[in-house]
Amino acid sequence: MLNWDQLNSTCTNCRNCDLAGARTNIVIGRGNPSAPIMFIGEGPGEQEDMQGLPFVGPAGQLLDTLLEALKFKPDEYYIANVVKCRPPNNRVPNEEEAEKCLPYLRNQVSLIRPRIIVCLGSTAAKYVVARDIKITQIRGQWIERKKFWIMPTFHPAALLRDQSKKELLFKDIKEVKKKINQLESEESGG
User: Fold this and answer.
1) Structural domain span for residue 13
2) Cβ neighbourhood burial of 158 (10 Å; 0-12, 13-18, 19+)
3) pLDDT tens-digit profile of 37-68?
4) Angle at which helices 4-12 and 95-112 pack, to 10 degrees?
5) Which of 5, 27, 127, 183 has its CA at a distance of 20 to 30 angstroms from the CA of residue 104?
6) Is the pTM for the entire model greater than 0.90?
């Protein structure tokens, strides 16, 4: 396992797929590197590629607003993506691109050791939960894995296209808040 400096350097120098050739910046993550909650999205968009940070465009602003509304503190979470470079025209990363980046994502999960992973959208759920799942079938359902809980839900960008999903995403993220409070209460003996 690489430490954070090694991971940043390795990602910055990565040329494992064609996405590296078109990127402006590598987009590794943002937030508390020892957070109890990790949000995982699909891949960087235009704003993310420009700034080198995930979820800073319209979908990210929506996510930040949602997290603020539900009283999440910035030190409670870390945000990353399956792929670290922007796919052309903001398309969904293909399987080869995702597979090449998965070791970096796994390394991030190992470093952060979150209690909860929130898969934002079908791409994240596909590579974190199972390849053959459909987000519409598993969203909002807790999945327990070895050392953490997984909550698959809609990507905030889906809300920008379809407002009817807003209530469901809000409900799912509210469940995440409830679960982390429960886990922390159990840990402290309460």
Assistant:
1) 4-180
2) buried
3) 999 999 999 999 999 999 999 999 999 999 99
4) 160
5) 183
6) yes
